[in-house]
Design brief:
Largest sheet: 2 strands, antiparallel
Oligomer: single chain
Radius of gyration: 30 Å
Helix content: 55-70%
Distance between the termini: 93 Å
Order of helices and strands: HHHHHHHHHHHHHHHHHHHHHHHHHHHEE
Number of strands: 2
Strand content: under 5%
Structural class: mainly alpha
Length: 440
């Protein structure tokens, strides 16, 4: 009796017969090969879904041992992979039948990993990748099952056979992993520090670190409403921002937005972008979400950003209206959009937060914010971010509205943008007292 015949004898008829009957085959491997070909087409996958072949294939894979049944195991995984390629019924069935656990245990088994059987590992990863394309719910189930030491050992294998399935489905898979490990969980600090060169200055960053920040910034910008940002991640990004603020050049006129080609400036810009988008999320929109802004405020975020704005030279349109004899010196934006990002952070933090509204007023920041309701050659959307910030500072805050009324009377500000916000200053002719009212 050969090995294949012995294997077939050991497999229960309830598992073996559906394969043989579906293809009118006499042996298991022949049946699997025929089913693999059939599952290459959408019609074939649909037909096999109605026959529950996927469930039977998953049960078979649990019975196959390595290395004695290695060839049959490869064929079984290949069949499962094909069945899950764009067929939602099979993708859903895979999740319901605990297929993630079954496949992940196979590809992370010590016998297969130690034997460097990249073919089986590759096939298993392709199965998971196909299932993940069904949507975010499927992706989360996969991640929660495979986030283990064994999986990361697989990810360390620098072979085309194992890297392709992880990276070959666009950026979704990589972003999912980075989102969970760096943003939602507590691994960002160790990952970021391990990307630092052993010989570099601790106050500077590597290109890989800057690249990681750019990817995380993109993830948060795209998915802030669907992910939960951990306090640890927010604090670490804030620390990175403070470090970069002390080492970048504020003298050279910026030539571009992000990326600039300067590693440290890019690290500054991407960490600032992350904070901008974190502070933009309204916690009332997500049940059970803990506001991440309050802990950041305790670190002195508002004061730091107001000081940053004061240290910068005035926006170009305001500089042009000032007498040349007046001192208009200040730091230059390190990249195009830097000033807009700062104003955006303050404006986002002020949204429905009286604590922030009051702090900006107490630190004489209202006039400063009003001065940024203007267009600027080096900062796209500065006017829009400035108006957004002023609106949030004034909303429901009588004290802040009073400050703006006094500034209007003193002639400190004369901004048509206030009118564009639907606001105007009315002055009582007898009392000479001003009030900010809605334009009707």
């Amino acid at each position: 009796m050969d090995a294949l015949t012995s294997l077939e004898v050991s497999i229960p008829a309830s598992i073996l017969q559906p394969f043989l009957a579906a293809t009118n085959s006499s042996t298991l491997n022949t049946a699997l090969e025929n089913l693999i070909e059939l599952a290459r087409t959408a019609d074939g996958r649909s037909d096999l879904a109605s026959k529950n072949i996927l469930n039977t294939a998953l049960q078979l894979s649990k019975l196959l041992s390595y290395p004695s049944s290695g060839d049959t195991l490869v064929l079984t995984l290949k069949l499962i992979r094909n069945l899950c390629a764009g067929e939602l019924r099979n993708q859903n069935s895979f999740i319901k039948q605990n297929g993630v656990d079954i496949v992940s245990k196979i590809i992370s088994s010590k016998d297969i990993v130690n034997d460097s059987n990249y073919g089986i590992i590759r096939m298993g990863l392709q199965v998971l990748a196909n299932v993940s394309l069904a949507g975010k719910k499927h992706q989360l189930v996969i991640w929660n099952h495979i986030c283990s030491l064994e999986f990361f050992e697989i990810a360390k294998i620098r072979r085309k056979e194992t890297c392709d399935p992880l990276l070959g489905y666009g950026e979704d898979w990589v972003k999912l992993i980075l989102s969970r490990t760096c943003i939602e969980e507590s691994y960002f600090t160790s990952i970021f520090s391990n990307l630092q060169s052993p010989t570099q200055n601790t106050n500077t960053f590597t290109q890989v670190q800057s690249f990681l920040l750019s990817i995380l910034s993109e993830i948060i910008n795209e998915q802030i409403e669907h992910i939960t940002v951990s306090n640890l991640f927010a604090f670490e990004v804030f620390k990175i921002l403070k470090t970069t603020l002390g080492i970048v050049n504020y003298v050279s006129r910026p030539k571009s937005g992000l990326p600039t080609g300067s590693i440290d400036i890019d690290a500054l810009g991407y960490s600032l972008s992350i904070l901008r988008d974190i502070c933009a999320f309204d916690p009332l929109h997500k049940e059970g979400y803990v506001d991440i802004v309050d802990p950041l405020l305790s670190l002195g975020l508002i004061e730091m950003f107001l000081d940053l704005l004061r240290d910068l030279e005035l926006p170009s349109i305001i500089r042009k209206t000032i007498n040349r004899d007046e001192n208009t010196s200040g730091k230059v934006c390190p990249y195009k959009g830097f000033r807009s990002d700062i104003v955006a952070v303050i404006g986002n933090c002020a949204y429905r937060r009286k604590r922030v509204q009051d702090e900006v007023r107490e630190k004489n920041g209202i006039l400063l914010m009003l001065q940024h309701c203007v267009t600027d050659d080096e900062n796209s959307f500065l006017r829009e971010w400035g108006i957004w910030g002023v609106r949030n500072l004034l909303e429901g805050n009588v004290e802040n509205q009073g400050v703006v009324r006094e500034l209007e009377i003193q002639g400190s500000v004369n901004l048509p943008e206030l009118a564009n916000m639907g606001l105007r200053v009315d002055v009582d002719q007898e009392t000479r007292r001003a009030k900010l009212v809605n334009m009707g």
